[in-house]
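Narrative summary of target 7.
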Amino acid sequence: MDVASVILMLVVLLVLARIGARLFARFGMPGLIGEIIVGILIANISFDGTSLLTLLNIDMGNINIIPPIEPNDNYNVLEIFAEIGVIFLLFSVGLETKVRDLFAVGKTAMLTATMGVIIPFIFGFILIMVYDGNMHHALFLAAAMVATSVGITARVIKDMKVLETLESRIIIGAAVIDDVLGMIVLAIVMGMAGGEELSVLSISVTVFKAVAFVLLMLALAYWVVPKIYKYFDEMHKRKVAATGEAHSSVNKLILAIVVCLGFSWAADMIGLATIIGAFLGGMLLAEYAWEWDLEGKIESITTLFISYFFVNVGMQVDLESCASVTVIVLATIVIFLAVISKYIGCGLGAQMGDKTLSKESRHIIGVGMIPRGEVGIIVAAYGLSSGAMSNELYAVVVIMAVATTIIAPPLLAKAFRKKYPPEYKITPDDLV
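Modeled conformation, tokenized:
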């Protein structure tokens, strides 16, 4: 494929993705759903026997979200852009996850997140072990059911102006911990999928590497990075005081990009997923993201590249396989379990952490943790690319992620309005 064809392909896909995102956003739904549907249509629609993939010069070849890049490999440019997009997406999530928040959210949020990970994982694992008995299939579907996409929930909470309520604080705090636990689960599952066989030793090694890497990054973010920042800040102030001139400093955006890509590479080198390194790299800089205006700058990069990821996700959905009775029945069961397991798990965890929580509060917390969104899709994409998930199960996970993303917002808005109607004034007793 020549350079001009590549450029044209990227332009057309980006335009179509943004149109799809805008259309769905106008109806109050997440734009990522529109981008996925654009990819599904491109991969499954043809004119006079010629598919849109061919018309757009997209060579899907061996579908692989993370292709091995060697000098002689014929890799897909779209796949590279998709991988970069998901790396920056998780980096931007990390930028919003401050380590001190993890240590300050309290027992209730911790138990809410923990139970909201354990119960969905068990439900998903048992379902697939009963369905086809494939350990790798079970692990990836279970992992896809674990992580909450807090972006959807946070948007509802912000729009309704109930951010200061006890329930909102627990949901946001639990979601932060949920992100970290979800990354550890993904790291463990990826490590086990990469081996030829599962054993107690291989699982133990994978768990150790994942936990050690996360703890190391948390320690760096909490103790080391602030000291480095303070040292350079004081040195800069001394130079300004001595010369009376403001000296140029390191370009913060370049530093952030280096950290993002550098820690993604480091995670890959020790056998973990690149997005884990990106997420933790973002956490390193989270305390200074607002001061350095990193969130807005990184968001621009993410917006560009992430569209290719979701379009690529949609391209790998075979509508013929989705139309089978088996996939429809399995998807229905998975959606039901995904909703009920998060609702029960998070509600139970919240009750364990705070016995005084009312039934209404537990209901709000349970519903707020339901959406999987892009997180479940990312896990499914890694499972498919590693060969640990079949095309049918991949389609099931995408359907589940999209369904829970659509289901949660109206349910959460209704739950909040029931306890906090528009005319209701939030009192100090309702706050944390």
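Residues 60-75 have pLDDT under 50 and may be disordered.
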